[in-house]
Write a structure and sequence with these properties.
This protein is α/β, with parallel strands linked by helices and 432 residues long. The protein contains 17 helices and 17 strands. The strands form 2 sheets. Strands 3, 4, 5, 6, 11, 12, 13, 14 and 15 form a 9-stranded mixed β-sheet that branches. The N and C termini lie far apart (47 Å). The structure holds flavin-adenine dinucleotide.
Length: 432
């Protein structure tokens, strides 16, 4: 590792760190990017749906040029509400998702992260892999560098912490303690090999096109979370994520939970015959705005999962990480022009986050998780109700339709119309 000091040290070569490093290098800053994995992406887990717009803002037209390792452009997104042996599915399919900047692609993070970090290196970033940061170095109260597990020290005007959900750096800065089990979810995921033609036939896709499926209800065994199934080129990614405190209370391991998910009839036929290629698990920040740590200090910024930036209700995380990394990079570049890396100058980062979609979206959904988790109806009553109502609607049983309607009212009355209105009101924030 180079001994010379840097304008910025970025810790973590995930979407947040690479975005921050790349933006700063383009502005002519000398940047070191430190990654504990053997290579970028070696330890990273995502579903993975990549939202194109945020990456396009950093690497224009990345899907056309530059050989980004993308799996399938997503043309269909489906949601499934399931009981043990029935399910209601609704979704949306449109090739409009492919027009202009395509909405989203499935990716495999180990491949994608290596490509993305290579773009940063091409812009001048010095990437060091296999380097774990263990300490922050301070001088007269401000952060001036890092110390690695090997005892190397590295100094810079700014340290940008992009070290993911269990941010050691945010802890060392005194910004956070360890997350409470209610503030994080634990996701378990397998990549399962399937021929592309089998994927296209089972998921009803044209060659090369992709889809996403999220499954709520009985698959989470009464815990707060959901299962997902995304199509890659020649594999599917199947996963499940639930709140860590729920896993602890239930005493079930996520890997065992995933085995149960595989057996659900809404999923089993889609993955039949598929061979497991890899298993991984990872925490997901879910505390939202209420758990967000301070975002800056003298010579220090925090971005991405390290700052609890995720929007679980919309399956968004990597896009927030990319945008936050970009805004952190722009802030440091502006601080360099001013020759001032104090908290006052770096507070511009928080202003930029407020003007972006990140803080407004997190503000909007800050009470959503509590509303859902504190209301057991969402985990049991509503999945059953959805299936019972669908069953009535599609049954031809020789009874007049007005009898069906009466049955439907009877089902709804079990919870009461006022209670249903109260239950559903908070969900308006997850609707659009
Ligand atoms: C199961 C699952 C499914 C998900 N699905 C989606 C999805 O479909 N779409 C979506 O947008 N988001 C999804 N997410 C969320 C998304 O993965 C994260 O929001 C995103 O990866 C955050 O990026 P980041 O750069 O902040 O952190 P990370 O991607 O976690 O990167 C942090 C990096 O820092 C490195 N690091 C950590 N500590 C140190 C240290 N001390 N020294 C040096 N390096 C260090 C790590 O090795 C890692 O490379 C999912 C997450 C999970 C777990």
């Amino acid at each position: 590792m180079s001994e010379s000091s840097y304008d910025a040290i970025v810790v973590g070569a995930g979407p947040a760190g690479v975005s921050a490093a790349l933006i700063m290098a383009r502005q002519g800053l000398k940047v070191a990017l430190l990654e504990r994995g053997e290579y970028p992406g070696a330890k990273n887990v995502q579903g993975a749906v990549l939202y194109s717009r945020m990456l396009h803002e950093i690497i224009p037209n990345f899907w056309k040029e530059g050989g980004a390792p993308l799996e399938r452009p997503v043309v269909e997104q489906k949601t499934c509400i399931a009981t043990e042996n029935s399910w209601v599915t609704f979704g949306y399919k449109s090739r409009k998702f492919l027009e202009g900047v395509p909405n989203a692609y499935t990716i495999i993070r180990a491949r994608f992260d290596q490509w993305y970090a290579a773009q940063a290196e091409a812009a001048g970033v010095e990437l060091f892999c296999g380097v774990t940061v263990r300490e922050l170095i301070r001088k007269e109260g401000r952060i001036i560098g890092v110390k690695t597990a090997d005892g190397d020290t590295l100094e810079a005007s700014v340290v940008v912490a992009c070290d993911g959900v269990n941010s050691f750096l945010a802890q060392k800065a005194g910004f956070i303690d360890e997350w409470k089990p209610t503030e994080v979810a634990l996701g378990a995921k397998e990549v399962l090999a399937l021929d592309s033609s089998v994927i296209e036939e089972r998921f009803g896709l044209e060659p090369g096109e992709g889809s996403t499926l999220e499954i709520f209800g009985s698959v989470t065994l009464g815990m707060l979370g959901y299962a997902f199934l995304y199509t890659n080129k020649e594999s599917v990614s199947l996963g499940v994520g639930c709140r860590l405190s729920d896993y602890q209370a239930k005493g079930i391991r996520p890997s065992d939970h995933l085995e149960l998910v595989k057996k659900h009839p809404a999923i089993s036929r889609l993955i039949a015959g598929a061979k497991t290629l890899e298993y991984s698990s990872h925490l997901i920040p879910e505390g939202g705005l209420k758990s967000m740590p301070p975002l800056f200090a003298d010579g220090f910024l925090v971005a991405g999962d390290a700052a609890q930036m995720s929007n679980a209700a919309f399956r968004e995380g990597s896009n927030l990480a990319m945008t936050a990394g970009k805004l952190a990079g722009e802030t440091v570049a502006q601080a360099k022009v001013q020759g001032d890396f104090s908290a006052k100058t770096l507070s511009l980062y928080a202003e930029k986050l407020k003007s972006s979609y990140i803080l407004p979206d997190m503000e909007e959904t800050k009470d959503l998780e509590h509303s859902i988790s504190s209301n057991p109806g969402f985990l049991e009553f509503y999945p059953q109700l959805a299936c019972d109502l669908a069953h009535l609607r599609f049954s031809v049983d020789g009874r007049p339709k007005r009898e069906h309607l009466k049955d439907a009212f009877r089902l709804l009355r079990r919870r009461g119309f006022i209670q249903i209105a109260k239950d559903l009101w908070p969900l308006r924030k997850a609707a659009l």
